[in-house]
Amino acid sequence: VCVEKILAELTEVLAETRGGDSRRWTDEAVDFEEADKLVYLKAALAETLRLYPSVPEDSKYAVEDDVLPDGTVVPAGSTVTYSIYSVGRMKSVWGEDCMEFKPERWLSVQGNRFEPPKDGYKFVAFNAGPRTCLGKDLAYLQMKSVAAAVLIRYRLLPVPGHRVQQKMSLTLFMKYGLRVFLYPRQLQKPNSAASH
């Protein structure tokens, strides 16, 4: 269902910006303005990063004595490690449906605008506060561009029997890769694109 929604959004944007001839949609990568309109795709990417952050753990070094919000004293010279992977799966942070892949949690009530959590420390895949990743917007732009380029051209189906297993490391990756079959997509008008 998620891929169908992404494809419907993508074909609608491309029909609007490049015209109704679907052969023109794959001439070049989506540009900045087109990518900016792909709000459901951004929500799906954010939801993916919530559950599978690129960097699953991070550490901070205390240069001076500090106290955490819960009263925990952190002496100068201490290293504090936190699990971004775990925070993205906590019921106390994300609710009872925390293990569900649900891009809609990132959208406005109308579904037409990306809305990150009001608490800037709830989603920490790009860090948070004054140390938020400077490349966050560029990362989203690149992810949207690659996802759009692949999904507009191909249907992806997992190779039967291929074991998908994540591996924790400095970065989170798939231990055996992700083996898929690519089938050329037959592009159609936006209102019927999600069916193929």
TrEMBL record:
Heme binds at C133. Gene3D superfamilies: Cytochrome P450. One of its GO terms (molecular function) is iron ion binding. Keywords: Heme, Iron, Metal-binding, Monooxygenase, Oxidoreductase. Its cofactor is heme. The keyword Ligase does not apply. It comes from the Eukaryota. GO terms for biological process: lipid metabolic process. Belongs to the cytochrome P450 family. This is Uncharacterized protein. It comes from Pisum sativum (Garden pea).
